[in-house]
Amino acid sequence: MSVETDSIAQPAPESSTRGIVGAATILAAGNIASRVLGLGREIVIYDLFGATGYVSVLKVASTLVITLYDFLVGGLITAALVPVLSEYAADPSRRREFWNLVSTVLSVIALLLALAVLGLELLAEPLFVILGAGYDEQLRAVGVQMIRLILPAVFFIGMAGVLSGVLFALKNFTLPAFITAAFNLSIIVCALALTPVLGITSAVLGVVVGAASQVVLQAIGLRNASLRVRFDLRHPALKQIGRLYVPVLGGLTIALIGVAIDRNLTSRTGDQSLAWMQAATYLVQLPLGLVTTAISFAILPTLSRAGNAAEFRKLLAFGLKLVLLLILPAVVGLFVLATPVVELVFQHGAFTASDTAATARALQFYLFGTAFAAIDQPLVFAFYARKNTLLPNLVAVVALGIYLVVAFALIQPLGYLGLVLANSAQLAGHAVVMLWFTRTRLGGIGGEGVGTTTLKLLLASAAMGAAMFFVPPLDFASGVVLEIGRVLVPALLGGIVYVIVLKVLRVRELDQLVGVLQRRARRGRG
Predict the structure, then answer these.
(1) Where are the alpha helices (DSSP H) in 268-386?
(2) Which residues of 329-351 are buried (b: 16+ CB within 10 A; e: fewer)?
(3) Of 276, 292, 417, 499, which has the fewest CB atoms closer than 10 Å, so is most exposed?
């Protein structure tokens, strides 16, 4: 990022920024609900089963579902479906054609997903061997059974993803924002209700039930839509979606290979390694989901409709600054408070103090790449909005190469932590290369104050971290009250310091964010 003066930077159009912040607020609200329930899901699973080998193979099965979703549908939504559908949805005269296209997309993807699930059921055993070759025979048998039971979730999550894409194109963010909350709630209910009967298989069943609930919830939002079974394979938009998706499919293939290698290597560092890494990953994904995902999906339809390069640049710059404004303090806070946060969230039931120490170390190492991951997603979406799906996926190949070099160099001396560092290096490498291509292929974000704002945010985050680090030990309570206090007191102090420094440095994006939230709060009360 180049450093620019604030006098050069001009704000993005107020209506656009209000729309982005408003959509991001809805998505963030849904993310808060989903993350709270997701936290409850993780707490329930680790409390019931601990950081054991059984939880590790459960994570392998869950990873397979998410990876297959990304491979079959996830990339399609952001790279092709939303940009193309947004063009049709923006023109009222093409509304009938819009619903015909949606019907075709839903019909085709439903058929492909059904065939994929049936085929993968036959490959459950080799799939687990690829992902978890290092586990013993007993854990392998459990893992294969889990995969066979969990694969129908791929169909439901895939269909839910397509429905989300349709609603995003219509700028209807509310129902898609809350589908993950329904998913997590289903896992919690199934695990608590059925564990005495089914053991850890209850969590697997919860994944399938939760995936189906996502489809039902979003179908409510489309209940008046003109949808029917339709296979118009000659529709020009369908061809455009396919053309945009082919490069993404190549990139996702690389990502799928990367996940398989990562899980395979992790299985060779100990039965508990993946359980520790996934617990840490969940804590990292909390701010990424609340901030980066919400803002990225909020700006994608607006970027897709940007009328000229100047408007596109201003909107992208605003999105990046908003991401950094919110993600940097989260990264610093989690790094300073890694151990007390893990203790508060996970250390109870079957999760031990040694599990806390191992998870906290993984969390801190993951955080080295978190800020890079935060800015990377809006950059990727910016290329998707300009219908360039090839370049971001070529960069993914380079990033995988970085991961492999670092992973094989560090796995022997550092074990699972070497793989965590390799993941951070992969994320950093991808983001840096995407920044360079943003400058050379999209005209860059120069003159929009991104560099100056970033320096101010780094300074404010450093001040926040120092304030949190020097909070004296708390000895006024014990038990869970002490655990909460060891997180809450430094976090509140750090947050106050962060806002004060931002005010002193006159970070305009903070005022824009607060202004939009205040307006929405007044409308809500009205």
Answers:
(1) 273-287, 294-304, 309-336, 338-346, 353-367, 370-385
(2) bbbbbbbbbbbbbbbbbbbeeeb
(3) 499
CA gap 487, 344 in Å, rounded: 8
The DSSP annotation for 355-406 comes to: HHHHHHHHHHHHHTTHHHHHHHHHHHHHHHHTT--HHHHHHHHHHHHHHHHH
Q: Which residues contact 196 (CB under 8 A, 6 or more apart)?
A: none
pLDDT, tens only, 320-368: 998 999 999 999 999 999 999 999 988 877 788 899 999 999 999 999 9
**Exposure class string for 19-29: b at 16+ Cβ within 10 A, else e:** bbbbbbbbbbb
How far is 46 from 52, CA to CA, in rounded Å?
A: 9
Q: In this structure, which amino acid lies at residue 103?
A: S
Distance CA 51, CA 248 (A): 35
**What letter would DSSP give residue 288?**
I
Place of tokens 């709270």: 36
Whether 124 and 151 have beta carbons less than 8 Å apart is answered as yes
Tens digit of each residue's pLDDT (9 = 90 or more) over 393-449: 889 889 999 999 999 999 999 999 999 999 999 999 999 999 999 988 888 887 788
Are 105 and 162 within 8 A, CB to CB? yes
What are the C-alpha distances in Å from 509 to residues 1, 324, 373, 394, 499?
Answer: 18, 10, 20, 32, 12
> Among 33, 27, 110, which residue's Cα sits nearest to residue 326?
27
